[in-house]
Amino acid sequence: MFRVLDVAAAVPTSPLDPGTVLDGAPEAGSRALAAVAGVEVGVWEMSPGTATDVEVDEVFVVLSGSATVTFEDGELVELGPGSVVRLRAGEHTTWVVHETLRKIYVA
User: Fold this and answer.
1) Which residues form the (S)-ureidoglycine aminohydrolase cupin domain (predicted)?
2) In the chain, pLDDT over 70 holds for what percent of residues?
3) Per the domain annotation, does 93 fall within a domain?
4) Cα torsion at 52, 78, 39, 5 (round to 10°)?
């Protein structure tokens, strides 16, 4: 038997820590969908704005929206629906969300 995971359902968001916000008033949040073999699968969403982050080990697929992620080493990644990205624990990133970004993650 299988269970359908609803990735379209609302994700509760709240304002980001002001110490991480560089522009705008972005909000973010996540909702766990399942635990599989010790890893979490969930949906994450961030509204437009710019914020910094320190990443965890994660693979994600963008479902909707657009953003630019800049890594500490200067690498820049443009995100849109269908983008698949691997993040490594401890990486410092800057997220510029142009249109509310929704992703499904495995972490």
Assistant:
1) 39-105
2) 97
3) yes
4) 120
